[in-house]
Amino acid sequence: MAELPLFLQEQTEDEIMQRMLERVPADIDKSEGSFIWDSQAPVAFMLADAAVWGQQVLQRGFASTTYGEYLDLRVAEHGLTRRAAVAAIGKVMFSGTPGTIVPTGTVVATPADEITDEASIEYKTLEAVNLGPDGTGVVPIKALVAGRSGNVPASVINVMSTSISGITAVINPNETSGGTDIESDELLLERFYAQVRNQGTSGNKAQYMKWAGEVAGVGGVQVIPLWKGPGTVGIYLLDTDKRAANAEIVAAAQKHIDPTMDGQGEGVAPAGPVVTVMGVQEVPIEISVQLTLAAGSTMEEVRGYIEDGVRAYLKQLAFTDTLVRYTRVAAVLLDLPSIVDYTNLTVNGKDNANIEISSGQVAVLGTVNVYE
């Protein structure tokens, strides 16, 4: 490998100054404080800075050492663009006088928290709804601001940003999902490496994975050739949280790859195969365990630690491993200083047994039951 030119190598101001002084004839005074020394010192300082700048420019040219807009430019050479943020979607239920109409675009929100200075999160209704005889009506919603902040738990969207006569309450029966931030450098680099190291061509599996990965909000892709027999391809999608991709992400991917689903090649997929894009089936992993806690620890605190650890483990498994290993769940417990010992650990009701995850499925955390 050729050595880098000197101006791109690590070097200090003193080293540069010494090289400059060595080129001054010996019969000329070049001691510190002399005219020669004083005139060359600023130059050495600027050249040292220029060497740092030169190294930075070099690093920006390689995907592994660049970032931000420079990474965008690098991956664009291979046809990749950073995926945009995606707004969360869900549903809310309005309550009030039967027959009341809630128009499309009605804005609802979570309450602001003055203690934590957390702003409310607003959503708009995507359809109009007419409250039924029981005085309720359910309608889909979408966050006004794209990003993960729109993913909220059930029962927290309870504010009418604009009051409507006849409406007394609003609530989201289930969590909202699918909100993702703009693609991070880490994920974009991962996608870049996947493309350049595993070239997709002629409609092979790698190319279907590339096409699906181009859609905003997609965090994992599983391709099933011959899904329903010859001429069919099934594609299962995860979101960036390694959960089932919601309907909006699935629809966007279907439109991008094979919008007509008739093999006519109207999307990026070649003519011939009929491509079906789907969200995965989530398989809840239920955990129950009897714990002996360290002094000062509480069950609620430890439950949170277990949930975080198991959730991180399950994300690693998504589309990479077909087994949720009992021993790995146990290892999460053993790694927690708050837990002195445990007994009666069961995973989905089974003792010392692995849970198998099939194609088109992803393991997600269910309930964690801890007791003394």
TrEMBL record:
Residues 285-370 form the Baseplate J-like C-terminal domain. Residues 92-179 form the Baseplate protein J-like barrel domain. Residues 201-279 form the Baseplate J-like central domain. Belongs to the Mu gp47/PBSX XkdT family. It comes from the Bacteria. InterPro entries: Barrel_Baseplate_J-like, Baseplate_J-like_C, Baseplate_J_M, Phage_Baseplate_Assmbl_Protein. Pfam families: Baseplate_J, Baseplate_J_C, Baseplate_J_M. This is Baseplate J/gp47 family protein.
